[in-house]
Amino acid sequence: MKLRKVTAASAAALVLALTATACGSDDKDSSGSGSGDSKSITVGIKFDQPGIGQKTPQGYSGFDVDVAKYIAKELGYSEDQIEWKESKSADRETMLQRGDVEFIAASYSINDERQKKVDFAGPYLLAHQDVLIRSDDDSIKSPADLNSKKLCSVTGSTSAQNVKEKLAPKAQLQEYPTYSACLTGLQNKAIDALTTDDSILAGYASQDAFKGKFKLGGFKMTNENYGIGVKKGSDLKAKINTALEKMVSDGSWQKAVDANFGPAGYKNEPAPKIGNIVS
Ligand code: GLU
């Protein structure tokens, strides 16, 4: 056999090719149609929202993670057959359209605009948009007070959109890629308030690192009906709705609520009825 001299450039090209191949085969495995040990399902979650979806050195945790695990089990996948992927707010529709993930459980509100691009199972949780402010700040007593403030939210979220369209159109809105990025700004006073769902903000406020530093406004500015995002036309929607109904009726939904929202003291709404979107 003739050995070919491997130059640095060709070695680099080889590495790139191998990486590309690895990604490609990965995608195939995540189609959900595999069988035996190679079977896996790829699920999109948030990585930086304690109590909802969080990646830690110990693994993945949060209400959305528990909902996703339950759905995966009902679809025939064990926990170790789940491949978790981060779905940032602005990336969710594209990830579903491209087939990067089978479904998304990531504080993902159902709305008309998104429903043009993807389908939703659920809803499985009703949250409300609120603000997180520094504990010693008494200047934000109502949503209208936000109009003179530096507000942070996330690109591609309903939270940012609501601020611009109706909640506080005159606020100086800064859009970051993630809510955790806003937190740093809130701490060092680069921003005055962080706005998104109360379910997410409660998780941040209860973190050891921030204990006592932040408080929620308690404004309940919108209704955020969390759905499970799937590719448009996917038959997964009906299967996931069946799984969500079972999760509520067998008590697993309440268990997940207690385990994940209990530590933050978040007072959630009762389990929504499937298909019942609160406007
Ligand atoms: N639930 C809202 C949304 O889907 C805000 C939370 C988020 O960005 O994930 O946009």
Fold and architecture overview:
The chain is an alpha/beta fold. It folds into 2 domains: 127 residues, Periplasmic binding protein-like II (D-Maltodextrin-Binding Protein, domain 2), CATH 3.40.190.10; 88 residues, D-Maltodextrin-Binding Protein, domain 2. The protein is 34% helix and 23% strand. The chain is built from 9 helices and 13 strands. It has a 5-stranded mixed β-sheet. A 5-stranded mixed β-sheet has the order 10-9-11-8-12, with helices on both faces. A 3-stranded antiparallel β-sheet has the order 2-3-4. Helix 2 packs across helix 8 and helix 2 packs antiparallel against helix 9. The radius of gyration is 21 Å and the shape is globular. It starts with 7 loop residues before the first helix and ends in an 18-residue tail after the last helix. The N terminus is likely disordered. The chain binds glutamic acid. The site of glutamic acid has 12 residues, from helix 5 and strand 11.
Q: What's this model, at a glance?
A:
The protein is of the alpha/beta class and 279 residues long. 34% of the residues lie in helices and 23% in strands. Strand 2 (48-49) and strand 3 form a beta hairpin.
Keywords:
binds glutamic acid; 5-stranded mixed beta sheet; globular; 2 domains; single chain; D-Maltodextrin-Binding Protein, domain 2; alpha/beta; 279 residues
